[in-house]
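Summary of Year 1 activities. Much of the first year was spent building the evaluation harness for sequence design. The harness presents a backbone, in tokenized form, and records the residue chosen at every position. We chose the following record to illustrate the format because it has been used consistently in internal testing since the harness was completed.
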């Protein structure tokens, strides 16, 4: 997999030198699929801790997807947790039975998957040729 961003400390990404805190400053807004591409959209959170100059929307575009796995999670206790990202990680495609771990790597290896874990246990995992992050002001 190739990317145009790096993962930082499993809760943030770096795009063009800009640190983007996915856990605190963004909420998941949905996923869409077309052909072999999957798009995951995050929008800016509402809160006094979010800077005014933060991006309004982030879209992770997974191109030429060859593997998808997901889990629903449990939002019965805290419904807001469903859309709060707990962590993001590149993870070896050879260990697909493990979907709740992180690796400490900023860039993916060739056969890695990308794993999105949410506070309520929801999970999305993709293997694809390229993941591109599009940030909009």
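For this record, the design step produced the sequence shown next.
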């Amino acid at each position: 997999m190739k990317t145009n961003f790096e993962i930082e400390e499993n809760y943030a990404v770096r795009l063009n030198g800009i640190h983007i805190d996915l856990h605190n400053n963004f909420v998941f807004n949905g996923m869409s699929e077309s052909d072999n591409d999957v798009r995951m959209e995050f929008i800016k959170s509402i809160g006094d801790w979010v800077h005014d100059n933060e991006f309004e929307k982030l879209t992770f575009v997974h191109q030429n997807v060859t593997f998808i796995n997901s889990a629903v999670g449990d939002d019965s206790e805290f419904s807001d947790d469903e859309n709060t990202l707990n962590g993001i990680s590149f993870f070896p495609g050879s260990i697909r039975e493990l979907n709740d771990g992180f690796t400490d790597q900023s860039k993916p290896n060739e056969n890695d998957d990308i794993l999105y874990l949410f506070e309520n246990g929801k999970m999305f995992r993709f293997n694809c040729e390229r993941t591109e992050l599009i940030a909009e002001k």
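The two ends are 26 Å apart (CA to CA). Quantitative recovery figures across the full test set are reported in Table 2.
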